[in-house]
Write a structure and sequence with these properties.
Blueprint lengths: L1 E4 L2 E7 L1 H13 L4 E5 L4 H7 L1 H12 L3 E6 L6 H9 L3 E4 L7 E4 L3 E5 L10 E5 L2 H17 L1 E2 H10 L6 E4 L2 H14 L3 E6 L2 H5 L4 H13 L3 E6 L3 H10 L5 E5 L8 E6 L3 E7 L7 H4 E7 L2 H25 L5
Helix pairs in contact: 1-3
Length: about 325
């Protein structure tokens, strides 16, 4: 089926042989670049479809710029490496499902179905200028956001967890995450409660007991910064029964209403207090930010340490010297 508009055409091509013929013809006319966007099965299809693989490698040898976005994973990493070794530039975008290619920013080919070890059977081809320009703009946007393949491959091979910053709006999810993070601690937990009420609301028997259990059973050092009044003194006294738990007190109010949790200097959870009057933590908290980004976690830990030093100085100033 072909739709004609002057010299511009859009057609649907059926059958693997016809599709490969169309692809090879398009490749033969390429002068500058080929951009492709494929799901995780794409690299294996490209490499194992011999005419396609051969044609693309010929383009690479001619100095044509070949760029591909795909979802690089354990099961396709060998194909991705092979493509890179042959002059194809790859970037990683998790969960990508689109399957299309653009030749010289002028011709668009899209696979309707693309499955590993299954033949191509239907492709949409178009050189309609406005349409191709729109698809090229989409590709360029995705390319700018995608991760270089070398970095993604290193993450997979070395077991490195990629950096993330996640915003959480569900207070129930936030609470469960906070508990899971505390349980995961191996060495150190830093907790900053910016208001008295935010600390008082933490007096859930299970949470306080969890902190004490982690400190005792896993030998994790826990440091807590909070404000002190008659309501919170009981909580503090209970925590201080464990030698691995240390609590310092803030004087005056902070400039922000945030509860901050830092785990082993590798993970941080920052919880916004939207209504400090509420007794129920689920109603009191707002958005939370969860991250393993080194710079983000370092910033949270640095703020904590600064406030901790200040609290130590103020504590010494309040304590009368021994005679």
């Amino acid at each position: 089926m072909t739709i004609l508009s002057t010299s511009e055409t859009t057609e649907v091509i059926y059958g693997a042989d016809n599709i490969i013929d169309k692809f090879l013809k398009s490749c033969s006319n390429v002068q500058e670049c080929v951009d492709g966007c494929y799901d995780s099965a794409g690299p294996s299809v490209v490499v194992t479809t011999e005419p396609v693989w051969k044609a693309l490698n010929e383009l690479a040898k001619r100095g044509i710029n070949l760029r591909y976005i795909t979802d690089i994973a354990t099961d396709n990493i060998s194909y991705c490496k092979l493509m890179m070794e042959n002059g194809h530039e790859l970037r990683h975008l998790p969960g990508i499902k689109s399957n299309f290619g653009i030749m010289d920013r002028m011709e668009y080919l899209a696979n309707v179905v693309l499955e590993e070890e299954k033949p191509l059977w239907q492709v949409v081809a178009s050189n309609v200028k406005t349409f191709v320009e729109g698809q090229q703009s989409l590709f360029d946007t995705l390319w700018s956001k995608a991760l270089p393949a070398e970095q993604r491959i290193r993450e997979i091979e070395e077991g490195i967890k990629p950096d993330f910053i996640e915003t959480i709006s569900d207070p129930y999810h936030t609470r469960e995450l906070a508990i899971d993070l505390v349980k995961s601690a191996k060495q150190e937990i830093l907790i900053l409660f910016s208001t008295i009420n935010s600390f008082r609301r933490q007096d859930w028997a299970e949470f306080i007991q969890l902190l004490l259990d982690i400190a005792s059973q896993n030998n994790v050092r826990i440091r807590i910064l909070t404000h002190l009044n008659n309501e919170t003194r009981t909580i503090v006294d209970r925590l201080k029964t464990n030698e691995n738990v240390d609590v310092k007190f803030l004087q005056g109010s902070l400039q922000t209403w945030l509860t901050t949790l830092v785990i082993d200097r590798k993970l941080s959870l920052e919880i916004e207090i939207k209504d400090d009057i509420k007794d129920n933590s689920y109603e009191a908290v707002g958005l939370a930010t969860y991250s393993n980004s080194e710079s983000t976690v370092w910033t949270r830990a640095s703020i904590f340490e600064t406030l901790w030093i200040r609290a130590e100085i103020e504590e010494k100033e309040r304590t009368p010297p021994r005679i």
